[in-house]
Amino acid sequence: MAGMKVLDVYRLLPRTNCHQCGMVCMAFASALLMGKARPEDCPPLVEEEKHAEAYEKLREAFGDKGEREATGLSIDRDKCDGCGICAAVCEISLEKSQELVNGKGSRRAESPVIAIVDGLITIKNPDACRRVVPDAPTCNACVDLCPMKALTFL
Q1: What is the average pLDDT across 136-151?
Q2: Cβ of 56: how many Cβ atoms within 10 Å?
Q3: Cβ distance 139 to 130 under 8 Å?
Q4: What's the rounded Cα separation, in Å, for the pair 41 and 32?
Q5: Is the CB of residue 113 less than 8 Å from the CB of residue 123?
Q6: Which residues, 6 or more positions from 146, have their beta carbon under 8 angstroms from its beta carbon?
Q7: Which is nearest to 148 in space by CA: 130, 124, 125, 121?
Q8: How does pLDDT run across 20-61, given as a tens digit for each residue?
Q9: Is the CB of residue 46 less than 8 Å from the CB of residue 40?
């Protein structure tokens, strides 16, 4: 469901504008896309059986945001071609893995922030990302240097 637009998300919502999530449904759709809300934040979507199929689709698209919530990094897996540039330019990953410095995949016990798994980018250690660490300088190298534009920060 990557590449969903706000109207695609809106059509999956109850569209009652009940404000139980604190906003109208169109605003909630936008918040889902920006990573500022979760499907579970909409009580009718969760509680009413008639929305079960839509709820599952939204959970599939937006439910596993743990890495995104921590780093603010959004990955469009449809655009990622697994080139590995993001992993190669991540300073924290490079500090943790000499193999990455040498252009190979990390095999060490310490987990790099970013890794290529099964040909796609994966955030392996979101807690180590400079965007999460307090008082660390903000880093955008993975986003700035992605040739496929598969990465964005929310």
Answers
A1: 87
A2: 13
A3: yes
A4: 10
A5: yes
A6: 85, 86
A7: 121
A8: 999 999 999 988 887 778 898 999 999 999 999 999 888 877
A9: yes
* Cα end-to-end span (Å), the chain: 18
Per the listing, tokens 């500090």 go with 95
pLDDT tens-digit readout, 60-80: 777 654 445 567 777 887 888
1 lies in some domain = no
Retrieve residue 112's tokens: 């790099």
Residue 151, beta-bridge partner list: 75
Total domains in the chain come to: 2
What is the C-alpha to C-alpha distance for residues 130 and 72, in angstroms, rounded to an integer? 11
Q: Is there a single domain that holds both residue 42 and residue 96?
A: no
- Domain final position from 46, 63, 80: 63
Q: How far apart are CA 56 and CA 113, in angstroms?
A: 29
- CA–CA gap between residue 148 and residue 37 (Å, rounded): 26
